[in-house]
Amino acid sequence: MRRKPAGSVSGDASGITVIRDTEALAEFCDAAREHDFVCLDTEFMRETTFYSILCLIQMATPDDEVIVDPLAEGLDLAPFVDLLMDDQLVKVMHAARQDMEIFYELCGKTVPGPIFDTQVAAMAAGFGDSVGYGGLVKGRLGINLDKGARFTDWSRRPLSDKQLSYALADVTHLRDLFPDLVDELEDAGRLPWVMEEMAPQMEEDLYAFDPEDAWQRLKVRNPRKPYLAALRAAAAWREEQAIERDVPRRRVLKDDALYDLATQKPRDLDALGRLRGIPRGFERSGAAKSLMARMNDALDNAEDYAPDVPKPTAMPPNLGPRVEMLKTLLRLRTEVVGIAPRLVAGAREIEKIAAFGEEAGVSALKGWRRELFGDDALALLRGEIGLRLDGDDVVAERFQG
After folding, report:
1. Do 1 and 53 form a contact (C-beta atoms < 8 A)?
2. Which of 24, 101, 116, 252, CA to CA, is 20 to 30 A from 125?
3. Considering 206, 226, 247, which residue would you say is the last residue of a domain?
């Protein structure tokens, strides 16, 4: 019989253990370290804030599962942070990016690891691109998940038994499918592929974001230095304001306002107030004064302050047919081995191969991806492989030289 962590509360008819104090959390985390992996998920709210409000943490080990209530008074998440940073314990998640953003902040702007993302793994197990958790559970375990609590306000208390059960299912089924999924990928020789694909999720640059780089979220509509300097300054100012006030970026200024600022480049508050994208009366605020100071400084130093924007690579004309043939070949090769095409090459990579061949410099022409697809892609471009219909099927046929 499972022993509930000391101090935990199981206040629902379903018997779900909800941890609301530090001692119970530390006890569960210590026990979790006795295993090779722990499954994790979170529920959070972000509609009215810049940073996500962490509302629930769900955890499952091979022999236990709990929900942690981060909003419980007096709860210190330090034991959970230590668990995240344990490099001997694999953290299993599905579509881990948003959870990892939360954990990165929780861990003092440090990337926890190692992680295993079952959404990435599913691409190598024949489940297509970006399969949802429900689809994976249905496909692997034959279980239809109840989505009735999907749109819960997770910050409200108390939560119902149904809501808690919904949340906990995100890790209990993950625990059940993870070991067999790993064994299957290992037997097929695909586990290294998956680990290579997951590696970028462990890079700090994915989560550490400098306000001065906030312009990269926007579309650059003009390559001139003054425009770029104004856009960078406006985006950086908005990012800093959103962080300081802990509000969504759109609550500070919408994207259209940033484009107006970069295009019109106002130098004073009167000119600022005349911009269509600027809220009425904003020019009379203290925030407007700080924005104008930032803009003027950027425009006075546009040559140095404007970011370097790579010029778009000039593509040869009439790429369309080659791109479509390469996409067809990719689908054929990946269907044979039962993996998602995107695990091998994305649309941009296909376009570069079509345009530059061996000189494309993309991952699809390296390692296992080249063996599976890249060599044949180059052969197709050289006219050594052709595509034809065989009844209702498209087949790739290598010509004998």
Report:
1. no
2. 101
3. 206
What pTM was estimated for this model as a whole?
A: 0.89
Question: In the chain, helix, strand, coil percent, each to 5?
Answer: 50, 10, 35
C-beta contacts of 242-245 below 8 A and 24+ residues apart: 242/50, 243/50, 243/211, 245/50
Tell me the C-alpha to C-alpha distance, in Å, between residue 20 and each of 66, 73, 90, 155, 157. Answer: 11, 8, 24, 14, 13
CB atoms within 10 A of CB 326: 24
Same domain assignment for residues 200 and 251: no
Question: Is 221 in the same domain as 275?
Answer: yes
Write out pLDDT tens, residues 129-162.
889 999 999 999 999 998 877 788 999 999 999 9
For residue 7, pLDDT over 50 is answered with no
User: Do 349 and 257 share a structural domain?
Assistant: no
pLDDT-derived band at 401, boundaries 50, 70, 90: low
- Where on the phi/psi map is residue 120: left (φ > 0), alpha (ψ -120 to 50), or beta? alpha
Of the three residues 305, 333, 356, the one that is the final residue of a domain is 305
Indicate whether 357 belongs to any domain.
Answer: yes
DSSP three-state, residue 66: strand
Query: Residues 216, 196, 122, CA angle at the centre, nearest 5°?
Result: 95
Query: Does 198 share its domain with 218?
Result: no
CATH number for the domain spanning 346: value is: 1.10.150
User: Quick one: three-class SS letters along 105-173?
Assistant: HHCCCCCCCCEEEHHHHHHCCCCCCCCCHHHHHHHHHCCCCCCCCCCCCCCCCCCCHHHHHHHHHHHHH
Amino acid at position 60, single letter? A
Domain that holds residue 271: 211-305
Sorting pLDDT into bands at 50, 70 and 90, what band is 2? very low
CATH code of 139's domain: 3.30.420.10
Give me the pLDDT at residue 315, please: 87
Residue 191 and residue 46 in one domain = yes
Percentage of residues in the chain with pLDDT exceeding 90?
86
Per the CB < 8 A criterion, the answer to whether 38 and 49 are in contact is no
Amino acid 209: pLDDT: 86
Asked if 240 and 202 sit in the same domain, the reply is: no
On whether both 64 and 103 belong to a single domain, the answer is yes
Joined together, the tokens standing for residue 26 give 């530390």
For the chain, the average pLDDT equals 93
Residue 247's CATH number: 1.10.150.80
